[in-house]
Design a protein that fits this description.
The complex is a heterodimer. By secondary structure, chain A is α+β, with helices and mostly antiparallel strands. Chain A has a single domain, classed as Dynein light chain 2a, cytoplasmic (Beta-Lactamase), CATH 3.30.450. Helix content of chain A is 48%, strand content 18%. In chain A, strand 3 and strand 4 form a beta hairpin. The termini of chain A are far apart. In chain B, the strands form 2 sheets. Chain B has a 6-stranded antiparallel β-sheet. In chain B, strands 8-7-11-10-9 form a 5-stranded antiparallel β-sheet, with helices on both faces. Chain B is α+β, with helices and mostly antiparallel strands. Chain B is built from 5 helices and 11 strands. Chain B is elongated, with a radius of gyration of 20 Å. In chain B, helix 1 packs antiparallel against helix 3. Chain B has 2 domains: 94 residues, no CATH class; 115 residues, 2-Layer Sandwich (Beta-Lactamase), CATH 3.30.450. In chain B, a hairpin with a 2-residue loop joins strand 2 and strand 3. The chains are: A alpha+beta, B alpha+beta. Chains A and B meet through helix 3, strand 3 and helix 7 of A and helix 4 and strand 9 of B.
Chain lengths: 170, 234
Amino acid sequence: MSAPLAKLFTPSAKALAEALDPIGAMPGVTDYLLVDARGVPVARTSHYGYDDERLALATEALRRSGLVLRAYLGADAPESEPLALRFSNGWLLAWWLGGATLVVFGREGLDLPTIRMRVSIVHRELAESRRLRRFLASGPDSGLDWARATAQSDEERCWIDTIAGGGRDG
Amino acid sequence: MGLVGNLSDLNVANIIELNCVERHSAQLTVKTRSGDAMVFFDNGEIVHARWGDLKGTEALYHILRLSDGEFHVTGTTAPERTIFESWKGLVLDGMRAFDETRRLQDDIAQSLADELKSLPGVSRLLVVSKDGTVVHNQGGTPYERAYALSAFLTAQGSALSDALHFGPLNYAAYLRGREKEFVFNCDQFFVMLAVPRSADIRPTSALIETIRAKLKASENELVPRQEAEEEARR
């Protein structure tokens, strides 16, 4: 169990950590990472291979993607389904868990149905614990304003405004 | 001077001609999504152009391709000189290169749309060029937000790729209602396509990779050809 989750020291936090742990051992999965609504890692695979700076850049880009995608999808945004990013050398899957972001890093041979089943267990643990939900979702920088403020260019801000300004169905 | 307007009413070549014939010393600025594009005139000659990282004639040729965007002309002096050729020759060469590129881009867009339409179960297909022009819209996707999302997600994909050394982003995929949407960029286009939620993603994934490889191969053929043509013109 990672340190921040251990601090909670509740049966729910323990259950959540136990639900996350097997993801790291699944076929095709190299790592997983759970960051709270402020982008702070709260749980991850112990053999995690990225340095903190690259990790921060990556999680920030993923959190921005999630916020903007959910603004685009509106009512169609299913929390149980990930954003999948296919790169030439790997996969990234990102789920949004009540403000927190779960990222799964993968390579060829990823077993998506099994991962999805495991993530549904994480969802259940979250649904059952208000304290855990509050812990993961807390933070001032979890909305579109944050995504806009941390956008990398005027062009990105312009795209965010277009997506956010169009209502649910554009 | 003090001219203000939109390129949809007065194109870049016209603005250049106006400033050069009138022998103005001025700065043309066009507001674009990628920052300000600037052309500087000194006594009726183009002396400098800049757009993002591009400078000189290369920047000018790209600026000549702009077809939309607010512009203004002010009486500013060029900070440096990067262009030494006559304005008439530059505009002619720029427009010729633009026409050739546009013809090739149209061909690419058409073959891209044809190949993607051949996938089983495609319910919507949107192909938008990077300047925001819709080149194909099957199924009536509201294109402005879709274009913005495609551009945004592919930009985030590049940032992730840089941070994690994952190689280029092939596509982003997510569920929307009963459909699975794929977003990716190919050459000068953003593509969004929707297939049924239950569809196997492998054929779509494989086709995207095949198309990208073909485009890369045709780009490798095109660049030396354009360079040879340019050399012959000189």
